[in-house]
Amino acid sequence: MKIQMTMLCLALCAGSASAKEINNKSSVAEQVGYSFGYLMGRSNADAMKDMDVDAFIDGLKAASQGKDSALTDEEMTRVLTQYKKQAEAKQLIELKQAAEANAKIGAAFLADNAKKDGVKVNKSGLQYLVLKEGKGKSPKANSTVKVDYEGRLLDGTVFDSSIARNQPASFQLSQVIQGWTEGLQLMKEGAKYRFFIPANLAYGQIGSGDAIAPNSTLIFDIELLEVASK
Length: 230
What we know:
The chain is α+β, with helices and mostly antiparallel strands. The protein has helices spanning 2-18, 28-43, 45-48, 53-64, 73-113, 162-165, 178-184, and strands at 119-121, 127-132, 144-152, 158-161, 169-172, 192-197, 218-227. It has 2 domains: 2-64, no CATH class; 98-227, Chitinase A, domain 3, CATH 3.10.50. The chain has 7 helices and 7 strands; from the N terminus they run αααααββββαβαββ. Strands 1, 2, 3, 4, 5, 6 and 7 form a 7-stranded antiparallel β-sheet that branches.
């Protein structure tokens, strides 16, 4: 990794001095330097969008050539700490705005969806549509079940699917989101339901990773394959 970073520093510094147009006819060193730089920029695009890239290259060049820094270590630490705090504050504001917008979108969707034929609504706000009834056992809140499922956002984006993986999932109902714990207890083995899960019964204001934004209403198609015997 140290060798790769050294190559990156040298390539960026050389690139900033020559500013050559790079193509597949350029030297290997130039292509390597461009590739490192491009991939680094692409993977850090969000972090670098408010950064002065020319100043970044100047700092990189000075350090790689063993020159003294224009800023003391204390000054660099202070400004980077301040920048991090500002970036985190900005991110929190953006998350809050996204959460508020998603809450409104979800509420409007659920209000309209509740009026559709076949859709049933629990006191908790959980909505479901019976796609196929089952004839086997129904699970309890602490039961272990085996299911096939597909999860979608309101725009239709599939964020998780055991069906696509061709690998049913097994888990204890007490270990999943509240909408699943509640919803699967309505089912019998062999049944297939479509659940419309409000954010407060799913991942709430936190969301889950990059796939599920804060306050997202989720749609799951779930087939209950088996309720494990105690």
